[in-house]
Records
---
Amino acid sequence: MSEARLWHTVDDYFTERLLGDDEALAAALRDSDAAGLPPIAVSPLQGKLLQLLARLQGARRVLEIGTLGGYSTIWLGRALPADGRLVTLEYDPRHAEVAVRNLARAGLAERVEVRVGPALESLPKLADEQPPPFDLVFVDADKANNPHYVEWALRLTAAGSLIVLDNVVRGGRVADPGNTDPDVVGTRAALEMFGTHPRLDATAVQTVGAKDHDGFALARVVS
């Protein structure tokens, strides 16, 4: 068995034993695939991790940057209390349409708001509304703009909030100084912010599994 195949097999083993069957989540993936969305949603185990992080936070307000078909949104939305709110930002109107349907089927239409358009246009508008601080921000959009998303996350959170940045390993390319791909450069810049910003206390974890070799960074807002 190849190394990559072994990673997937172990992920399948964990998924079968730790996560039950869930038709709303399975349907979200099926409908996203049928609509031609790229197969880049978080894995089931990663989705459950996001849900547990939100619950550990006692999150009542969540911001997601990058909706895709709403798969991760469902995981996060289910962690919220009945009066909680999740705002998710999606660039592509077609992706957003799929996400809205998936969220409605999962019973989250009243709890989740999908905003369509470039996130760097949606975020200033959101800030202008002066919302209460978000308890958790999940950043999983175009990686070249990661440092800008982290800047906005800091504006929209307060001490005790959590920022999760996905896909930070990129198959190891993040550690290759010769790699100048914009997604890699953007990820490096965001990690630099995580490591040096006085308001953040951060770590990063590389993972293997259904998403091959990748990982995430996690930062607590400390002031």
---
Amino acid sequence: MKLYYSPGACSLSPHIALLEAGLPYDLVKVDLRAKKLENGDDFLQVNPKGQVPALALDTGEMVTEGPIIIQMIADRVADRKLAPARDSNERYKLLEWLNYITTELHKNLGPMFSPVLADDAKAFFKDRAMGKFKYVESQLAGREYLMGNQFTVADGYLFTMIMWATDRLGFDLSGLPNVTAYKARVAARPKVQEALKKEGLLKAA
């Protein structure tokens, strides 16, 4: 498999998932602004959406959209319990978390990276995102991870969003002790450390 990624982008989530799953893969770096690969090839020929992550399967098929990619990775190594069993109530809870992270956190944080977005608009998105993080804070009370004591692919995704907020967008989440402790706990996982190192992000953890 090949994971098309950009350092620190949301592709960090499936990168973590691949390492936690123990699946073999190659990393292909993408310049998202130029839509080019390191060898100069046009990334739009790989993924017409022009976004990462994109995962090329050994069959030649291409899978895009992070929440789908990480579930597929988890299902390939069911014994690792990176996702609850299909059709179980717990699996639907995982889907609920993935949907929340992608629509309520990812989609509010993403626009804040735009260099042309006005300050008042950034403040609007920041306020919205902070409200969503407060909900996460309440749900992490008494839990090691989102689904309880078991790390799942949803945790790699949430960790990526927390890194965006604190390390790249300057959010102060110190008033959310559960979220702060959670970030440190996930960052300390060996496979997460490995993903951060491979993407040149270790100092940001």
---
Amino acid sequence: MSVFKRIGNLFAKPEPPKPEKSMLALMPGDICEVSLVTYEVIGRVHNRGRNAVLLTLRDGNTIAYLNIEERETLEYELYAPIDGRLDNPAEVPTEIELDDRVYYMEEEYIGHVLIQGKTPFTQGGEQHVWQYQSDDYHLLRIEWQNGRFMLYEGEKVIPGDVKVIRAN
């Protein structure tokens, strides 16, 4: 290395640190922590119209789903899949009783989603979503896409309990 190059390196500005990757930007292969549990992101469903992402997370054999939506602040909801069946998206009720708990519909929307990695649905397209909440703040989410329903039960997660561990 020449003397001039060494002197130049002394006065060169250090490379700025890379900004931390947002939870909304996580992709399959990234690692995150939710409520003190470390998960690998294995799938991602992105709804651009709502600035929302549903991440498929894996911790060993356990699969969970983290819904992230940016409104005034980032809102997080952690879901687990549940067994259930509905026949027609036009007949989704506004109230659902499940395990002695009554859920009330809070929101219903349709949006175009992009899918990456392993998710309950194999391809992107138009997705219908119904979100419910019970009086004791438990959450229920129903998704319909390409003739298939998915049901999830979960709870809200405070932003301080969610962080990126490693992003590619």
---
Amino acid sequence: MKRADHPMRLDVFNELPAGEAANFLRPCVDVDRWIDTLVSARPFHSLHALSSFALQHVPAFSPGEISAALAHHPRIGERAPGASREADLSRGEQASLKLEGDAFERLEAANRAYEQRFNRVFLIRAAGRSTEEILAECERRLGNDEENELREVGEQLRQIAVLRLKDSVQD
């Protein structure tokens, strides 16, 4: 995954006023409870401690938090528009997708099927996954009931948030 142009040093993040720290974290995932919990838990002694805390110590996202956060995510296989930090992070996450041959059409069809089934964008941590893995996961998840799928979406959001955090902060 592409590194942010200028990741913030952890010691600088630890010292930011709460409002600035919250604004810095928002592109990772726009969930106030996640952001507020991380800001309140500072200082962190290492990036590992920060990312581990972010992954493990905030309870699962609520359905409302998931819906709000999904509003900022493009469909898998589509480039996030704009010049925001969040758009840059999203483009970096999807940069490794190989959309050759019929892969783009297959992703479009998978996105449509998912959106028809669950009435929301299909979200998956794309970083480190091949297009074939993503398509297989979408197909598998189409068999989920709403409750289990919502749990998986929340977990994917959390994984994306932590990857973005690691891309934005350095020891």
